[in-house]
Design a protein that fits this description.
The structure is a homodimer of 185-residue chains.
Chain A: H1 6-14, H2 22-33, H3 41-53, E1 57-62, E2 70-75, H4 77-88, H5 100-106, H6 113-143, H7 148-184
Antiparallel strand pairs in A: 1-2
Helix pairs in contact in A: 1-3, 2-3, 6-7
Chain A binds a DNA duplex (28 and 28 nucleotides) through helix 3.
DNA sequence: TACGTCATGTAACCGGTTACATGATTCA
DNA sequence: TGAATCATGTAACCGGTTACATGACGTA
């Protein structure tokens, strides 16, 4: 029994945010949803086609000046209803995120403490970069003129990213510290 | 160009923790690695077979009293080397974890604030349960006699889970609070 | 005899990425 | 003429789950 296909709803939702082409959807995902959802063209275009087939969206060929033609998709009423129904449906179990660093740490008695520390420091560095990305997106949303109603929710998702990333960074620092303390004994 | 196949290394690593059968590996994963890695039998058994084919492990049929026969796998020296090499290899980019709650929140202007709050509360409840699971595993590791060298690292991974979960729970509470404040204006 | 645990395995399916193909338009 | 951006699309592949099949052994 399958349950998810949340990607379909991600696209359904993005069609309400001013994105109406596969290309625009992809850009939006890479810019703003990147920290909790990502989709490739290999999914986007077939899904859009499917939405039309299911009567959840309509297409329309549009020619532009100075740019190639594009296909614009718009939600139908049925599509909007589908989105709202999904929004209210209870969430499934929290997905297990695969964490390569934790997996390595789990088996780290097989390597030197120094090697483990290097891994943790590298991880912290990456988390740090992520954190700054969140900051940058946050500034973009607050300064550029987006739909104000959407913006509040988008900032919430960024806050989530910042908080959990900050917690992970602290953990990194503390764990490195603890391993270093072993050495001194 | 593929990169990962970390699952192979997860199994390689688990063979050093006292697990020597596919069944035991599965149990270990469900009990202790569940929050950052999970593997189904559909991957375990074929992978074990592959490890032997690649000379990274050996098999041996063992009959037990009072239990069915089993196949015991042991790392070869080549297998141990493979594990150590992987441990020291730099981590790839941090994987994007798909978060259904954040996805819904992102589009939540399409539903009532009350519905959004319900979702967030349900999420917080699930995080809460996860937190208690971490606590339980932590107690198990500290009380039962495990390899002490392994135990320290295992506790680090649990600490990570607890800290990031705690941060997420706080975010939930604060976000609900903010949405409720809107109503009062 | 039926249930629970221990134990091994695989075929079908599915969500998703990667790599590739194509082509319009603009600008340096 | 060649690079950058805008734009659409798909076939091959892959990691992984699900559902199913099988069976030994102990215990109620």
């Amino acid at each position: 029994m399958k349950q998810t296909n949340n990607t379909k709803f991600a696209i359904l939702g993005l069609l309400t945010t001013g994105c109406h082409t596969g290309y625009a959807i992809k850009q939006m995902i890479d810019q703003s949803l990147n920290h909790f959802w990502k989709i490739s063209y290999g999914q986007i275009y077939p899904t859009l086609k499917q939405l039309v087939a299911d009567g959840l969206a309509t297409v329309q060929d549009t020619s532009q000046e100075g740019k190639p033609d594009k296909k614009e998709y718009f939600l139908t009423e049925k599509g909007e209803m589908e989105l709202r129904t999904w929004l209210q449906a209870p969430i499934n179990a929290i997905a297990t995120e695969k964490n390569e660093v934790l997996l390595k740490l789990f088996f780290s008695r097989h390597q030197s403490n120094q090697s483990t520390i290097i891994q943790l420091e590298q991880y912290r560095q990456k988390l740090h970069e992520h954190y700054h990305t969140y900051d940058a997106i946050e500034k973009m949303i607050t300064t550029e003129l987006f739909n104000k109603e959407d913006a509040a929710f988008w900032l919430f998702t960024l806050d989530y990213g910042k908080r959990t990333t900050a917690a992970a960074m602290e953990w990194c620092a503390d764990t490195v510290q603890q391993i270093q303390n072993w050495e001194e004994e």
